[in-house]
Amino acid sequence: MPGSVEQMKMKSAERIGVLGIPFSKGQSRVGTEYGPEVLRNGGIVRKLQNLGCHVQDHGDVEVIQVEKDDPEENAKNPRTVGLTSKLIADKVERVLRSEDICLGLGGDHSVAIGTIAGNARVEPDLVVLWIDAHADINTPMTSDSGNIHGMPLAFLVRELESYVTKLPGFEWLSPCIHAKDIAYIGLRDVDAGERKIIEKFGITAFSMQEVDKYGINEVVERALRAVDPEGKRPIHLSFDVDAMDPTLATSARDHAVIGGLSLRETYYIAEEVARTGRLSMVDVAEVNPLLGDEKDKKLTVDMTISVIQRFFGNRRGGCYPPGYDIPLPHKLMTR
Ligand SMILES: [Mn+2]
Q1: Is the full-model pTM beyond 0.85?
Q2: Where does this protein hold Mn(2+) (predicted)?
Q3: Active site residue 108
Q4: How many CA atoms lie within 13 Å of 224's alpha carbon, on the beta-carbon side?
Q5: Rounded to the nearest whole angstrom, what is the distance from the C-alpha of residue 132 to the centroid of ligand 1?
Q6: 191 is catalytic
Q7: What is the pLDDT of residues 243-257, one digit of tens each?
C-alpha cells in the first residue's frame, strides 16, 4: 500500500534526536566507544535530513570511568556501567521530552540499560524489539564472561528482579518492562541460562531457525503481534549489528556468530518497523571500527547507516520528503 497516507503515518517526517553513547566498558575490548564518531563521520545526520527528517544532534552522553571498579557477583565494571547507564537514561529522557524519536548511537550493548530505562520514563507502555545474535539476558549469575553487555535485559525485566543482585552503581535502576513486552529476532548464540529465562518467562524469541522456517516477513509480523496485538504501543528497537551475518558486518565480528541475518532481511525488519509509525527509540550497538581493516570498517559503517535510514522512512521502493510533489516545468512555474 504505497502512497502518501502511509508516508504521513510514519514518524520519519518528525523530529529525531541523535545521541552518541561512546561506551565500551560493558565488555572487554576497546573500540565500541568510537561507534558514534564513525557513524557521524559516515554522514548519518545528513542522510536522515535528506529523508525530510528534522534532525537535532544532542552530542554525546558523558561516560563515567570509575577507577577502582572490582567485579561484583561476577559482573565486570559494575559501577562504571551502572553510573554511566544513569546518565544515558537521563539524557534519553531529556531528548525524548523535546523530540519524537531518539536515535542512540552506541557503544556496546550495555548502553541499552540506560536507553530503555530512559525511554520507559517517557513511554511507560513501550515494547522492546531486540535484533541480535545474542539474547543479552544473562543475569550476573548465569553469565560465563561477566561482561555486562550480555546482561542488559536482565536488569530491566520485572520478572527477573529477584534473580539479579543490585550491583553497585545500579541503585538508581528499577526494572521497567515485562518479559512479555520483549521480542527477539536473529538469535543464534543463546546461553543455557538465557534459554531457561526465555522459556520460563515466555519471552517471544525468533532465532535464525524461525527466520529460516517462516521467512522474515512472517517473523516480523508475529513479533510485532506478540508484544502488542492491538498495534498501539511505542516501540523501542535495539539493534545489535552482530545480528547481521559477520560476512557483512565485519567490524562487529568480535562476538560474531556465523549464519546471521542477511542485509535484505535486516532492511525488511527496519522498513516494517518504520511502517508502524510507533518507533520511540532506535539504538545501534556494537559497531567497533577498531576491528578489521579500513575496508571492513567502511563496509560496516555504510551498511549500518543504510539500515538506520530504513528505520526512519527510507524504503527500497522509493520515498520522498513530506510535502514533495512532481515539479512543474519552469515555463509553467514562472507564468
Ligand atoms: Mn547484543
Answers
A1: yes
A2: 109, 132, 134, 136, 240, 242
A3: no
A4: 23
A5: 5
A6: no
A7: 999 987 676 666 789
